[in-house]
Amino acid sequence: MDLHDLRCFEVIATLGNMSRAAELLGRTQPALTKCIHRLEGEIGGRLFHRRGRGLELSESGAVLLASADRIRREAAEARRHIADLSEGTAGLVRVGAGAPIMGQMLPDVLPEVLARSPGATFQVVLDTGAALAHALRQGELDIWIGPLSSPLDPALSWRMLWEEQSVVVARHGHRLARPGLRLADLVNADWALPASGVDTRRWLEQLLARHGLPAPRVVIETNLAPAQPRLIAATDLLSIVSRRALRSPEVGSLLAPLPLEGVVLTRPYGLHLRKEAYLSPAACKFIDVLVRHVREPTT
Asked: Domain 164-266 maps to which CATH number in 3.90.76.10, 3.40.190.10, 3.40.47.10, 3.40.50.2000?
């Protein structure tokens, strides 16, 4: 089955209109018609029925559409695997993670993998958990390092590596850094937090709500974690930072946890992989080095 024909079929099926599909793909309508005829010859049945000025999937077309994305992803993975074998290379590693992990772990892991896997290449993607999960499901990533998604996507496998604890922080010498601090004392504070729906912010909002307190007053909404410590240190803003990050001199010299007894967000972190997906030799080596780094931290 020609993968280009399959891609054309997907676009036509999604739009339900041959002329719009031709415009989007930059092809002529007769060329797309030939693509469909070739596919129909292979499967032995009609893929579309005419409906007014548009097209409607037949029963056979619906079956093919449901499998088309998987077929293209598996073919792409097979090509990568064969290329790695024929060229004798360590292969490509496509890894995604949030900003804290990028800044705290990958600088230690990547140099070792590159030294031990000559010829390896990396595509490193920084984004939110939701975006990385989508990219992994679509076959655009090999590995996503992040918190356990709940519920776990049945198409993904999960390997826990560590438990991450996050706490409320402020600059050193903040007026709220005093013994006996309570959640209610934070009501009038201003916050720098990630976008609504991100795990850390949702946890804080739910925690305050359970104690009958209003939602945090967010004056800066940002997912740029590398800039966050300096921003908080230069203001009276509060935020949420992992204890792992606070152990690093770059962050610990600027911020300190507020003495809120029992106010800790604990989340399992680890590797998300697509089930039965191809991993290059370099990707396997990356996982080995990452696991060892987590078990034997350098800081």
From this structure: 3.40.190.10
